[in-house]
Amino acid sequence: MKKTILATVVGITWAGAALAADPAIGVWKTQPDEGAYAYVEMVPCGAAICGTIQRTFKDEGEYMSENLGKKLVIDMVPDGNGDYAGKVWRPSNNKIYNGKMSVSGNNLKLSGCVAGGLICSKQSWQRVQ
């Protein structure tokens, strides 16, 4: 019984450490979309990664968008090689798309697709912290 409990604790600790070391965790600056961009905080959400809008900006500077606090990146499940699959919400048209994400250093590439991946919109994000 003690070995089972120990194995469970070790497994949970290892899984938590793996997510904490996930390269997508942090704050990212989005590419401008219709003149605005945001800082999105990526955090673990279960076994996936989710991203919430923390700050919003236009050419004139920071502003209080109605989208603050909303989830932009939804349940991106990592494959262990820096690639993810999940959903992406696009605020400008209020639609959710099948999404893919890849992280390489301080660069994140995000895409949202419809029609089985035939029509996609892509963005490149930069790490803020």
Q: What does this protein look like?
A:
The chain is mostly beta strands and 129 residues long. It has one helix and nine strands. Strands 1-2-3-5-6-7-8-9 form an eight-stranded antiparallel barrel. The longest helix has 19 residues, at 2-20. The chain is globular, with a radius of gyration of 17 Å. The model is unreliable at 1-19 (pLDDT under 50).
Cα-to-Cα separation, first versus last residue: 43 Å
Oligomeric composition of the shown chains: single chain
Number of helical segments with 4 or more residues: 1
Low-confidence stretches: 1-19
What's the Cα radius of gyration?
17 Å
Strand content: over 45%
- Mean pLDDT, all residues: 85
Query: What is the helical fraction, as a range of percent?
Result: 10-25%
The side-by-side strand order for the widest beta sheet comes to 1-2-3-5-6-7-8-9
Tally of extended strands?
Answer: 9
Apparent shape = globular
Order of helices and strands: HEEEEEEEEE
Structural class category: mainly beta
How would a crystallographer describe the biggest sheet?
A: 8 strands, antiparallel, barrel
Topology at a glance:
Blueprint: H1 2-20, E1 26-29, E2 37-45, E3 48-58, E4 61-63, E5 71-78, E6 83-90, E7 95-104, E8 107-114, E9 119-127
Antiparallel strand pairs: 1-2, 1-9, 2-3, 3-4, 3-5, 5-6, 6-7, 7-8, 8-9
